[in-house]
Design goal:
alpha/beta; three-stranded antiparallel sheet; 16 helices; globular
């Protein structure tokens, strides 16, 4: 409805009522105008009717929704199912063109506008979360691992002789495979144990650079968000080393946007040294379905090079999901979620410590990890090696998801590289442990139910361990008696 149509409506409905309706419509349009002019996340969240109006306006700008459109190409936005069309708000053409995921599509102005706005809004939120000097970013319809691969492939053209990637160890398969998939050889730098924490061995990183030669190294691949007792890498020191040796630096910031500490590390690293790009997951930071990531950086041209490396067009679903979410929350709503997450981390930490004390265990001291916590499982591990993994199964069958139990001495081979002590980020961490995390969206009820079920599982495990110990003692006693009789 434009001004002319509202004027025509006055012949059918009382003019005062039509003007009132026009004013209501204008309130929606003012929000749309502010978004288009500023390209920033609105301070206050929008209602669903405004968001749906906006998406409808975008959709009718795409050629597949033109009245009387005649398409004779191989890709004309045809969709067989009306349900699928409605699921995507009839934004069918996706984003980008064959040569650049950020390029504008001539026959999909609405989808192109969606793409540009999403990248602009997400950039604003990254600044809001703590990386204030970031210059460019884009949403890519791949999860974190493949997005890291895209970054490495882009660097290949800049450093054609390079074959190695320096990687402080973190036991997570996708980030390891991201390097293998890109065709490079990961050089694993073992962490050093400081108290309970596993931290970056800066001396080993620099020594390996000298041994291999800086020109043969594609980049340093560091990590922020991780499972305790591993803590975020020493990003500032790594960034300085990268600047000194002129080596690119890619940061895996998978679920670090929700942590002011992780974002501060990235900001400081870029300030004192070199960080070329940092990658974060959409689902882990913005509570949307799996399948998208944000690639961001401090050099606008390099981020554009990464976007041009993506072959072909791409799905608009991740961009659509995160834009809807951020418009719904607004900047104030997202900041409130970040605040609540931090509060829940403190609550989870204090309550898990109490539970650990009650079971003669210990909450590991990992002050540098702002998201994940770890509780020792020494008693279970001493009684029975299998009891540790059994605890994980017990929690899962009791509908506790996300908790990880990490036994000692687990060995796993990933792409022909054997990790000792896999999942613990070290060859021989001193004890088995359990992980729990306070991630964005967690509620007090989640923490309380988890602790209650964990307490029951630990009591059950202890009873079973005692029972098995008694059976073994009786069995050993009987064996000894039989030997005496013989």
């Amino acid at each position: 409805m434009n001004a002319e149509n509202f004027g025509s409506s006055e012949r059918l409905v009382t003019a005062a009522y039509v003007r009132q309706g026009a004013q209501g419509r204008r309130a929606h349009e003012l929000r749309l105008r502010a978004l288009l002019e500023q390209g920033k996340c609105p301070e206050d969240g929008w209602d669903e009717s405004t968001i749906e109006l906006f998406l409808h306006e975008l959709a009718i700008m795409d050629s597949n929704n033109f009245l009387g459109n005649c398409g004779v190409g191989e890709r004309e936005g045809r969709v067989a199912s009306g349900l699928v069309a409605r699921r995507h708000y009839r934004l069918i053409h996706g984003i980008g063109r064959s040569g650049d995921i950020s390029a504008v599509q001539p026959k999909a102005a609405g989808s192109s506008l969606l793409n540009k706005l999403t990248n602009s809004v997400v950039l604003d939120v990254i600044k809001l979360a703590g990386v204030r000097t970031v210059t460019n970013c884009f949403v890519v319809p791949m999860a974190t691992g493949m997005s890291l691969t895209l970054c490495f492939l882009t660097l290949r053209h800049k450093r054609p002789k390079a074959k190695y990637i320096i990687w402080p160890r973190i036991d997570q398969k996708s980030c390891f495979k991201s390097m293998i998939t890109a065709g490079f050889e990961p050089v694993v730098i073992e962490n050093v144990l400081e108290g309970d924490e596993l931290r970056t061995d800066i001396e080993a990183v620099e020594a390996k650079i000298k041994a291999l030669g800086a020109e043969n190294i594609l980049c340093v691949h560091s990590t922020t968000s991780c499972f305790a007792p591993r803590v975020p890498d020493r990003l500032e020191e790594l960034a300085v080393i990268c600047a000194n040796y002129d080596i690119p630096h890619i940061v895996n910031n998978a679920y670090g946007v929700q942590s002011s500490k992780c974002m501060h590390l990235i900001q400081q690293g870029a300030r004192v040294g070199r960080i070329d790009a940092f990658v974060q997951s959409l689902d882990k930071n913005f509570m949307v379905p799996v399948g998208g990531a944000i690639i961001a950086g401090f050099n606008e041209s390099f981020v554009q090079e990464i976007s041009k490396m993506y072959p072909g067009r791409a799905s608009a679903s991740p961009s659509l999901d995160v834009l809807i979410t951020l418009l719904s929350l607004g900047a104030s709503g997202y900041k409130q979620l970040l605040k609540e997450r931090k509060e829940m981390f403190c609550y989870l930490s204090s309550e898990l410590k109490k539970l650990a004390d009650n079971h003669n265990e210990r909450l590991l001291d990992t002050p540098h990890n702002p998201i994940s916590l770890a509780m020792s499982l020494k008693n279970l591990d001493e009684n029975n090696d299998a009891a540790v993994t059994q605890l994980g199964s017990m929690l899962f069958t009791r509908q506790v998801s996300g908790a990880r139990v990490v036994p000692c001495g687990s060995v796993q081979t990933v792409n022909n590289y054997t990790f000792k002590g896999f999942m613990s980020h070290a060859n021989d961490y001193p004890c088995a442990y359990l992980n729990a995390a306070s991630a964005i969206g967690i509620k007090k009820q989640d923490v309380d139910v988890f602790l209650k079920r964990l307490d029951k599982c630990l009591k059950t495990s202890r009873k079973e361990a005692k029972k098995e110990k008694s059976v073994n003692e009786i069995s050993n006693s009987n064996t000894g008696t039989e030997q005496l009789e013989d």
